[in-house]
Specification:
heterodimer; A: 999 residues; mainly beta; Immunoglobulin-like; Maltoporin, Chain A; 22-stranded antiparallel β-barrel; five-stranded mixed sheet; globular; B: 537 residues; mainly alpha; Serine Threonine Protein Phosphatase 5, Tetratricopeptide repeat; two-stranded antiparallel ribbon
């Protein structure tokens, strides 16, 4: 004890002495960012080693002399230097460096990397940008903000799933990217993907949902998008289509903060085809204003050792179609802890989400109320009178459907569909994460992680008696579908990080992981012939005991185990070499080809460190990488056995089998890029080029039905190429204390080509591969050699040299079909491609004092889209605007030009199986995708650290659009039904109010 | 440093071990335990027997109904003059107006190959290996019954070369196919008659409850049907095979208890198509004959109102009214649905012909076949007796009295057709043939009577009726109103076949080119099949 006392006296006197010499004083202050206290900011006296860091309240205390300069620095923020002078309190508001300059990015496996060292293209979006105009599916908010990322919303209203495409379509089965939450792959199953433009007779073309719509947007801290395969080689096959990394919020050290936010938007149906005035009145009377209300609260706090984050959010939405509503609750609890002198870090979280949707809108022709609404004959009086959709039928002693004409399979009274064919979706997600990292020393550590991820998606449709006979038994029909997907994931990795000498840094990871995915489904459908025993009682025990009802269950599982290695070698902070390698073993492949290895290599050079540049160039780098990714197939895909049918024996058809032992699929990609920043990082540009070849995919192709395969075999074949440019540029043309303008432009052009389909060695000709079957309708999508993914096929009118349609007028109006196409598949010829030539997003943010004004303009250039909606409306009714007047020149079979009224011509051309070539539009569109005005209030005296009110708008207007519908909406998040609108729910324009409070 | 390397080595080994042990169950988990393997089906001989049900239920496919609609309804059922569609599908440009729809007709071809040939091939192979001759015999009879229908639609088909390739196949000419049918019937009858007391097929028999003698009768009757079909194309073979059938000791189907009817457990697809979808109605041709003959069976074939639909009034109350086949989208209608609305209340099919029973051959048909055989001098019996037994048998089968009076009617003739909605579709009857047998009449007239009565009796077997119409020209079915074949099909000669299907053109182009050579004419609906000689004597 004495010794300590002595030591402290000596130390104290030395210290005091020093202070006396330098005339030091105590300086205190608070460091904030965006109004929030910022903990962990380093405060250093310039040119010394002396420094402190801010505590959890952003406060610091340092002794300094008046001549000293304090340097405040924090990752991702612009450093601030302030001379002490005679101040004793120095408060600093730090600003983030420009978006693209953030120094650290979370990459594969949760590894934080210095952005400058990346050898591939990655881009990220902060929480603020995502939450600015909040949407029920947070992924929607990425549209236009990332170059090379295409987003199409499912036409199913609130809570709808999203189709995300990075760098084009590559796979025949799944082109969605992998989502990763806090380093662990997320299961993002969908319970259903529609295929045909006719619609599914078993309940309609519905949205099978996705896991992303079950995530609380307010829990997201940031999203990073790794666009290519090299960025994702470490995630294995699932990362083939790129990876979207979501980092969620965690508890903060010290103190306690709370936040609350509430947003309320009103959604109006917009962007219809051109109806006659009378028809439009009826259409308008059917729709209503939708409302979306998202509320969330979060609590965060903790000690130096353990921190907690808790959030709850609920969403209530009312759709633009009457009776459609959604309610959703999401809970999230996250615990982080640092133990044993920070050597052990523990992270655990539980997320639970529950979503209930009544009458989720369907697309295509079956069970779609819009058919009746759009085709209603206005001369029968206002549509609203059919709100009395049923009338008592004394012969059956029940209420029966009524409508202005006989119902058909595709057309019933729309109000009857809503009230007497109702659906209910119940979706739930559990996500449990647990991880621990132990650092033996500053060089070496191990990490273990596990997750349990469960999604259940349950669906029912109740179809009452007197629904149309194609869709229902006379006593009604009950459809029930349960989908349950569970994913167990675990990984174990060792991390090593060191420096060899002054110049060379080395870091490496070696690890193993195991993913076990189980899917259980149950499906029961009383059908239209099997039927129910008692009318309008919806229960499985009420099914007739008949071979015409369907009841089935299926259980699938897949395990993939992997060993992976990743290393980065850095030279003088100016040259980085990345090498990764991975071997997967998949249970979905036969033993002979179960194991597959794939590597990647990347190199990047920081030019401004290697060479002397003009001082205006603040950053410059070049990057190049090459990556391969192997891929397996879905579970039980290669050698399935026969199904048993309820009451009806075994499946008559031979299961589809591979022609030869299947190989793992393979994707090879190469990319180059360069990034330059100018004038103190106020301007910057990133240009990238990539080329991806997806080869040896497992195709199920048609063979002769009279061969023993029974008409279909599986072969590894094909080469699908995607190449393109991505450019992302930002600028801050104005920046001063009061006013700041930040603007960012994202450009991407992808070119897709099917280089070949058939492998000659297999002896199987693959003249085309069907992505969306035509069936009996005039829309289909096929892959042919030399064609592109997304090619749309339709029925085209034969024209003379002057472009007049050729029509046989000898009996009625028989429009002649074009017979000059290079390729005709099942009577349809190519009419265009659904994918854009290039995409452009322009994101702007203006800050003036407490005001912020943001807007995003999103443009999609090139590509076509087909309106089967318009075709059907013109074929089934006279409700289109152009059918009301006007004529069209046609020629008869003898070549004489004559006129037909638009009404006669388009009635003959229309219909689902008509001349859809007449309904193909340029898909180019430029829209005001997002706009918001925010004001920050100073309410500190009420204990509110930060209060922000925003007026927000989404999808506000189109500056340019030729199609009758919004081409950014899709009827399927799968590969099917791209570039066609078949009575999709019209896209909405939303206006609303957002309130954020931080305590 | 050393410690770390050591640790890393241990960790790597550990990881590899974990992975190797994890892949152990990979083979066993990659399946769906709800699906069934042949090993699981050993009990009750199901590994072979379970393959029969799909065969029985695909000759006329029972489920889903739209497949039947494309397999037979929107072609043979219409071309045979039995039924037609009230809605002019595809704006009137469809099969029924000879604008043949490849997407529809593909199913005529793919269903039997995907559902029948594959299963029969499996049964033949497995049952031969494991010593179940009756399984093999029955499978062969079913194969002939199923595939002669396909040959009768297209001409050349894949039959003897089936099984030689996984992905393509070589076609037989129709003559080769028919010769193979006779050979298969020979083999089948040998296998069954030599093992006539074997009982293992009983559980799987959806027709005769395991009575193999009845199967022998059916095989004889089927042989007679095929022999008669080639009467003019190959008279020597025809006579040989007919006499083989007529003299076989097991005999032919003679009474309605022996009818070849598949007793399914699914509702008849016609019920769905007619009642639920309102997509099929009575044809003008059968109206003209049955109403002209005052045929009482009309009440069993057709109905004035839909089942369960009590307030829909027929367009002409109290009358059975059919629709002309081959209607285009008439110029006075805005669209298909408007036209359908005018025709949907014409006569519907009666529920008694749309039960879960699938009728493929009745005793009446066999009596009419024997009448023709006698007429051709292949049978020593009296054609008149056979003809009249055929009619009586049909009345019996339908549960309708009055056969004797009907047989004696020598005045009634088919009546003119009147379309009450669009008068331009009205047409005069094309035949004045009467019911009563007339020994003094020419063979041609006698044949017309036989085929006309067979046609009425066989309802609703559209496939067989269309084949016999093409072979003989009887009954005199009304031509299409609108012929949109582009000149490939003659309106009055009417459609002779369906072109080879689009999926074969895509996947088996060499096979199709060879088949066209074997067809001996262009691959259109106007080319006559081998047995379609255009003359009857």
């Amino acid at each position: 004890m004495k010794l300590i006392k002595l030591f402290s006296i000596v130390f104290f006197s030395l210290f005091m002495g020093y202070q006396l010499v330098a005339q030091e004083k105590v300086v205190t202050g608070t460091v904030t960012a965006d109004g929030d206290p910022l903990p962990g900011v380093s405060v250093v006296i310039k040119n010394t080693q002396k420094g402190v860091s801010t505590d959890f309240n952003g406060k610091y205390e340092i002794k300094a002399s008046p001549d000293d300069v304090l340097v405040f620095s924090y990752v991702g923020m612009k450093p601030v230097e302030i001379k002490v002078g005679n101040q004793t309190q120095i408060d600093v508001a730090m600003e983030e460096t420009a978006q693209a300059l953030k120094k650290v990015i979370v990459t594969a496996l949760g590894i934080k990397k210095q952005r400058k060292s990346l050898t591939y293209a990655a881009q990220d979006v902060k929480a603020d940008e995502l939450q600015r105009v909040k949407q029920t599916n947070p992924i929607n908010s990425l549209a236009g903000k990332i170059s090379g990322l295409t987003i199409e919303r499912n036409a199913s209203g609130a809570g709808g799933s999203v189709k995300v495409l990075l760098r084009g379509n590559k796979s025949l089965r799944n082109n969605q990217p992998l989502y990763v939450i806090d380093g662990v792959p997320l299961a993002n199953p969908t319970s259903y993907i529609p295929v045909s433009t006719f619609g599914d007779k078993s309940g309609g073309n519905r949205d099978g949902g996705d896991a992303l719509s079950l995530i609380n947007p307010d829990d997201i801290e940031s999203i990073s998008v790794l666009k290519g395969a090299s960025a994702s080689a470490l995630y294995g096959s699932a990362g083939l289509n790129g990876v979207i990394l979501i980092t969620t919020k965690k508890g903060r050290k010290g103190g306690f903060t709370a936040s609350a936010s509430s947003s309320y938007t009103v959604d109006s149906p917009a962007y219809f085809m051109a109806f006659s005035d009378e028809a439009q009145k009826n259409v308008d009377s059917f729709f209503q204003k939708g409302q979306t209300n998202i509320n969330s609260v979060s609590l965060s706090g903790g000690t130096q050792a353990a921190q907690t984050y808790f959030s709850y959010s609920n969403t209530n939405a009312k759709g633009i179609i009457p009776t459609n509503d959604l309610s959703q609750h999401t809970f999230n609890l996250r615990e982080t802890a640092q133990l044993l002198n920070n050597k052990l870090q523990i992270n655990g979280s539980v997320m639970f989400s529950k979503q209930k949707i009544n009458n989720r809108p369907v697309s295509a022709l079956y069970f779609n109320p819009l058919i009746g609404v759009y085709n209603y004959d206005a001369s029968q009086g206002p549509l609203s009178k059919w709100k009395e959709f049923e009338v008592f039928d004394p012969s059956r002693n029940l209420m029966k459907q009524q409508w202005f004409r006989a119902t058909s399979d595709i057309e019933q009274n729309p109000y009857w569909i809503l009230h007497r064919n109702p659906t209910l979706d119940n979706n739930q997600k559990w996500l449990l994460n647990l991880g621990a990292t132990y650092k033996f020393n500053e060089h070496f550590g191990v990490k273990i992680r596990g997750s349990f991820d469960k999604n259940t998606m349950d669906y029912t449709r109740k179809i009452y008696a007197t629904s149309n006979g194609t869709l229902s038994h006379k006593n009604g029909r009950y459809i029930l579908a349960n989908f349950d997907n569970t994913q167990w994931y675990g990984d174990l990795s060792a991390m090593y990080d060191t420096k060899f000498g002054e110049d060379i840094s080395f870091s490496a990871i070696l690890g193993t992981s195991m993913t076990h995915n189980l899917t259980d489904t149950f499906y029961a459908d009383s059908g239209n012939t099997g039927g129910l025993q008692y009318a309008n009682v919806f229960a499985i025990q009420n099914f007739n005991a008949s071979a015409d009802v369907s009841i089935n269950e299926h259980h699938l599982q897949k395990k993939v185990s992997s060993v992976y290695f990743s290393s980065t070698v850095g030279y003088k902070d100016q040259l980085y070499l990345d090498v990764t390698a991975r071997n997967d073993w998949s249970s979905a492949l036969p033993a002979e080809s179960r194991s597959y290895f794939y590597p990647s290599v990347g190199l990047t050079g920081i030019l401004n460190k290697m060479f002397e540049f003009n001082e205006n160039i603040s950053f410059a780098k070049v990057r190049a990488s090459y990556a391969e990714v192997g891929n397996d197939v879905p579970a039980n895909f290669l050698y399935p056995n026969r199904n048993i049918f309820f009451g009806a024996g075994v499946d008559p058809q031979t299961p589809v089998r591979p022609l030869k032992v299947p190989r793992p699929e393979r994707q090879k990609s190469v990319e180059f890029g360069t990034e330059w920043h100018f004038l103190d990082d106020r301007y910057g540009i990133d240009i990238g080029y990539y080329n991806t070849n997806t080869v040896d995919q497992y195709f199920i192709v048609d063979a002769s039905a009279a061969g023993t395969s029974g008409g279909r075999v599986g072969v590894n074949s094909g080469d699908i190429q995607n190449k393109g440019w991505e450019i992302s540029a930002f600028a801050e043309p104005f920046r001063n204390d009061n006013f700041k303008w930040h603007t960012q432009l994202n450009y991407a052009a992808n070119h897709n080509e099917v280089l070949n389909l058939s492998n000659e060695s297999d002896g199987v000709e693959i003249p085309y591969y069907t992505i969306s079957p035509g069936g009996v309708n005039s829309y289909a999508s096929y892959l042919v050699e030399g064609g592109s993914y997304g090619d749309i096929y339709g029925q085209v009118v034969k024209r003379d040299d002057a472009g007049h349609p050729i029509v046989d007028l000898s009996s009625g109006v028989a429009i002649q079909k074009d017979d000059n196409a290079d390729i005709t598949i099942a009577g349809l010829e190519k009419v265009g491609n659904a994918n854009p030539d290039f995409m452009l997003g322009w994101n702007n943010s203006f800050d003036y004092k407490n005001f912020t004004f943001d807007f995003l303009i999103d443009g999609r250039f090139g590509g076509v889209t087909m309106s089967m909606t318009e075709a059907v409306v013109e074929g089934m009714s006279d409700n289109s605007a152009r059918e009301q007047s006007g004529n069209i020149d046609v020629v008869d079979l003898n070549g004489n030009v004559t006129q037909l009224s638009n009404k006669v011509y388009y009635s003959a051309a229309g219909g689902r199986n008509g001349f859809t070539g007449e309904y193909v539009y340029d898909a180019t569109n430029i829209r005001l995708a997002e706009m918001s005005v925010s004001y920050k209030f100073n309410l500190n005296k009420f204990g509110i650290k930060r209060a922000k009110v925003s007026l927000i708008g989404n999808n506000l207007m189109f500056f340019y659009k030729k199609a009758p519908h919004d081409p950014n909406v899709t009827g399927s998040i799968g590969n099917t039904l791209q570039g066609v609108d078949v009575f999709n729910l019209p896209s909405t324009r939303s206006l609303g109010l957002n309130l954020n409070l931080n305590f | 440093m050393k410690r770390i390397y050591k640790f890393l080595t241990i960790l790597s080994v550990l990881m590899l071990l974990i992975n190797i042990s994890c892949t152990k169950d990979f083979d066993s988990i990659n399946n769906d335990p709800t699906q069934i393997t042949d090993e699981q089906l050993t009990a009750d001989f199901q590994y072979i027997g379970a393959k029969f049900q799909p065969v029985f239920e695909s000759i006329i496919i029972t489920n889903p109904a739209w497949k039947y609609q494309l397999q037979q309804n929107l072609n043979a059922d219409v071309f045979s003059g039995y039924m037609t569609n009230p809605r002019p599908f595809i704006a009137g440009a469809n099969n029924t107006t000879y604008n043949l729809v490849p997407g529809w007709n593909n199913f005529i071809w793919t269903i039997p190959y995907k559902n029948i040939m594959n299963n029969v091939a499996y049964i033949e192979k497995q049952a031969t290996e494991d010593g179940f001759p009756v399984f093999v015999g029955i499978a062969k009879i079913l194969k002939v019954e199923a595939m002669h229908r396909i040959s009768d639609v297209f001409g050349p088909i894949v039959y003897t070369h089936y099984g030689e390739s996984v992905t393509t196949s070589e076609y037989d000419s129709q003559q080769e196919a028919y010769y193979a049918f006779f050979d298969d019937l020979d083999t089948a009858q040998d296998l069954i008659s030599n093992n006539i007391s074997d009982g293992y097929f009983t559980n799987f028999d959806m027709v005769y409850e395991g009575n193999l003698e009845k199967w022998m009768k059916f095989a004889n009757s089927l042989r007679l049907r095929l022999a008669i079909r080639i009467a003019m194309a190959d008279p020597v073979k025809a006579q040989t095979e007919a006499q083989k059938a007529l003299t076989n000791s097991y005999g032919l189907i003679e009474n309605n208890a022996e009818n070849f009817i598949i007793h399914g457990n699914k509702s008849h697809p016609l019920a769905t198509i007619c009642n639920a979808w309102d997509d099929i109605r009575m044809n003008a041709s059968i109206e003209s004959y049955m109403r002209g003959y005052n045929d009482p069976r009309i009440y069993k074939y057709f109905s004035l109102v839909k089942e369960g639909d009590t307030d829909t009034q027929p367009v002409v109350p109290g009358t059975f009214k059919g629709i002309r086949n081959g209607l285009p989208l008439l110029p006075n209608y805005a669209d298909e649905l408007a036209q359908k609305a005018d025709y949907v209340n014409f006569a519907v099919l009666n529920k008694s012909v749309m039960t879960s029973d699938l009728q493929l051959m009745t005793a009446a048909e066999v009596w009419f076949l024997r009448a023709e055989a006698a007429l051709r001098g292949w049978d020593s019996g009296d054609p008149q007796t056979y003809y009249e037994t055929g009619i009586t048998s049909s009345f019996e089968y339908r549960g309708v009295p009055g056969a004797a009076a009907y047989i004696a009617d020598n005045t009634s003739t088919p009546m003119d057709y009147v379309d009450p909605v669009n008068a331009s579709n009205s047409i005069n009857a094309l035949s004045n043939v009467t019911i009563a047998w007339d020994n003094a009449a020419s063979d041609e007239v006698k044949l017309e009577k036989i085929i006309t009565q067979k046609w009425i009796a066989m309802f609703p077997q559209g496939e067989e009726a269309w084949a016999e119409f093409r072979r003989t020209g009887y009954p005199k079915i009304f031509p299409v109103v609108s012929n949109q074949s582009g000149g490939t099909i003659d309106t009055n000669i009417q459609i002779r076949r369906i072109p080879f299907v689009v999926s074969e053109y895509d996947t088996n182009p060499d096979g199709v080119q060879d088949a066209i050579t074997k067809l001996g004419g262009p691959d259109t609906g106007g080319t006559r099949l081998w047995w379609d000689t255009g003359s009857n004597f």
